[in-house]
Design a protein that fits this description.
By secondary structure, the chain is an alpha/beta fold. The protein has one domain: Rossmann fold. About 45% of the residues lie in helices and about 15% in strands. It is built from 10 helices and 8 strands. The protein has an 8-stranded mixed beta sheet, sandwiched between helices. The longest helix has 21 residues, at about 145-165. The radius of gyration is 17 Å and the shape is globular.
Length: about 250
């Protein structure tokens, strides 16, 4: 898939943050985008500004996943929606906060990926699952977030294996930002928590990752992954301000 013009894309959580940046990059390349999310007001704003189709619903709802995939039959499926983790050290976490990303990010990815494979989507379709650098290095102030994002990464491997075994021709990959993106709501909250723990400013903490990476850069990297054939074979790709797109498969 070297041209995104006319491709049908579904982006969960595409009404804010990194998901919104992905939507904008896909639109700039001529894709037809449908955004799925919970927040009616944010969806309305995105629809009015960008002219995208929107569907309001809980991304963890299996019936929603099945109906959207079956009705739209996207050739690009970007599973980006994620909950804000409970930010506290382990001994101060509640189970509800600790398990939040398992009950949201992992559950949603499970249902949407399952139905993409069961339908199945058309040969040549691409499915991107949003993981995190926390899946590599952990995230001690984020409860079960790191483990949840590692599971999302593993599901990309599992889904890719199913696609090959059944000869579906669907490419399933994990997107792994290797640094906190401070210009998003989730990123700002995480940066503030870790900066406070280290006793430094938010700017000093974020500088530790090297060159900053903006949401727009993430969106552009995603569009490149989907359009440049050299990124069509790997399972997991890391994104970083210093190095751009890097294959993480061992």
């Amino acid at each position: 898939m070297q041209n995104l013009q006319g491709q049908k894309a579904v982006v969960t959580g595409g009404n804010r943050g990194l998901g919104l940046a992905m939507v904008e990059s896909l639109l700039a390349r001529g894709a037809h985008v449908t955004v799925v999310g919970r927040d009616a007001e944010r969806l309305k704003q995105v629809s009015n500004r960008l002219g995208v189709d929107t569907i309001r619903g809980d991304v963890t709802d299996e019936a929603l996943a099945k109906s959207v995939i079956g009705d739209i039959r996207p050739t690009l499926l970007l599973l980006n929606a994620g909950a804000t983790p409970g930010l506290a050290p382990l001994h101060e976490q509640t189970w509800d906060g600790f398990s939040r990303n398992w009950n949201n990010d992992v559950k949603a990815t499970f249902h949407w990926l399952q139905h993409a494979l069961r339908l199945p989507l058309a040969q040549g379709s691409r499915v991107l699952l949003s993981s995190s650098g926390a899946a590599v290095n952990g995230s001690p102030l984020s409860g079960g977030y790191a483990g949840a994002k590692r599971m999302v990464w593993l599901m990309a491997q599992y889904g890719s294996g199913v696609s090959k075994e059944l000869e579906l021709g669907i490419t399933v990959q994990a997107l792994v930002p290797r640094q906190i993106v401070g210009d998003t709501e989730h990123g700002r909250l995480a940066a503030e928590a870790y900066a406070s723990k280290k006793g430094v400013s938010v700017g000093e903490f974020l500088a530790g990752f090297g060159a900053p990476m903006s949401p727009k850069q993430v969106g552009e990297h995603v569009a490149t992954l989907l359009s440049d054939p050299k990124y069509a074979k790997g399972i997991a790709y890391g994104l970083k301000g210093d190095t751009g797109i890097v294959l993480l498969d061992s």
